[in-house]
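We store amino acids, tokens; thus:
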Amino acid sequence: MQNSLDKIVVGNLNFSYGKNQILSGISFELERGDLLGLMGSNGSGKTTLIRSLLGFLNASYDEYSLFGSKFKNLSISQISKLISYVPQAHNLAFNYTLFEVVSMGKKPHFGGVFGFSKADIKSVYAAMDMVGILQLKDRNFSELSGGQKQLGLIARAIAQNSEVMILDEPTSALDFSNQILIWKVMNTISKSGKIIIVCSHEPNHIFWFATKVFAIKDGKSLAFGKNDIINEILLEQIYGANYKICSLANQKIIYYSIN
């Protein structure tokens, strides 16, 4: 059993916009090596939860700690070393090459001095190579396709080498091949001892790759546990009826039944 120095602990997290309660009583624990799939329909509170965990929103909670440190006591610099973030989309105001964008992931480790060592450059190249975009390193970021930009943001988070990666719909702009590639990359990274939290509308991807699942509905916890908690009853609670699970070539698949 792991101690608090190896965990993320969230206890009774709540968030409201004025009198409008968005999140209520959210609690879970994650350990090193966990890849959490965050499931929920549109408007369920997934992105609000992610923004709360990042400190972008002023949520209240009984406990929120990262590896034994209370989140509220961490500086912005400390948080940026612990957590990397991949948003759904990101448009840069200035012209940077893809290499420069991915290199921004190294900034939290410079201690205020912007400069690259050979090891830094090597790790940036490795991050781009991991997601298949190294050949685009000198391209202007603004000229890339939506999918290529998203791969660049994922590479930036990988280069950041944080203990926790939080990704909000990271594969929504990608083709099927790159979607699977990114999930495989996240799976590999989590197995190195990192914690990864992924919000996704693709339940099959969560089913196939996540080690833990957190389902949210109307801002409240619907289910939390290993990925085998995904069943037809839970899918109906999240998305509505007619979702089925079958086995094909020894692989479980979620599908929508039109009958």
Notes: The mean pLDDT is 91. DSSP finds eight helices and twelve strands in the chain. Residues 176-191 form the longest helix (16 residues).
